[in-house]
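#onboarding

Welcome to the new folks! Below is a worked example of what a typical request in this channel looks like: someone posts a single protein sequence, and someone else replies with the predicted structure as tokens. Don't worry about understanding the tokens yet, we'll cover that in week two.

Example request:
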Amino acid sequence: MSPKIILDCDPGHDDAVAILLAARECEVLAITTVSGNAPLHLTTANALLICQLAGLDIPVHAGADRPLLVPAAHAPRAHGATGLDGPPRPEVYLEAASADAVRCIIDTVRSHDDVWLVPVGPLTNIALAIRQAPDIVEQIAGISLMGGAVGAGNVTPAAEFNIWADPHAAQIVFGSGARVMRMAGLNLTHQLCVGPEVITALRAEGGTVPGFMADLFDFYLAGYRERAGLEAAPMHDPCAVLAVTRPELFTFGTRQVDVETEGGLTRGMTVVDERPGTDAVPNCDVAYGIDAVTALDLIVDAVRSYG
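Example response:
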């Protein structure tokens, strides 16, 4: 039986992949959107666009348009002004099911058993849902998130973008007491990358979705090549989906993870307690390794399936 999930996202090139992958690997009860890689109106339109192109009948609910306490920040260097720069942009004719993602999360969890929350953007919606309805923490199967890092960040030396963008929300989520918490941070996601050979294969596949994704990957990879000299672009967000559907592909370590909310140099840092013999109470399964070959095959097969 496929796991039931709510995919909370801020598309975003790798979010687009996560949507396509989740629709093949899971029962996606809802997609909720949040301000992150781009402003909320764009991340919502981008989620609707991917559903439209792929023919997915999944309700999309718009969520928080700003973080809990800090000013909104976006990632145009990585994802362009629209969040999905690269290919020509078709007109989006699908409409959001609601503008209340938090209520969607609460109601969906209360009406279904064992729902996974899979946030792959800033954690604002998830934190608001937990704060408004603490009972949902005991009802969910778990939280599998893309965010943080064991080691260096990307938006700052200490912090990954999703956690940095709303550190106070991240602090609430990591401290929620969820029975299962899985973290796919930068140390893990940079092991799963898409390079030119995948782009060429998708373009040769034909079909609207593989071609659109190939153009997205071209833009996304060009940015990583320019900024970091990389010849393959990390598939961050699909890792959080695969951690639910294919946990056997991962190597996890059970750790205590806290979030720095105020540090001038370390805001948004995920502080992972790796001390041997520590008496810290673990709250998270931190992903350290992935079978990248198998994971990439699953991603490529999922995109091809929409051809």
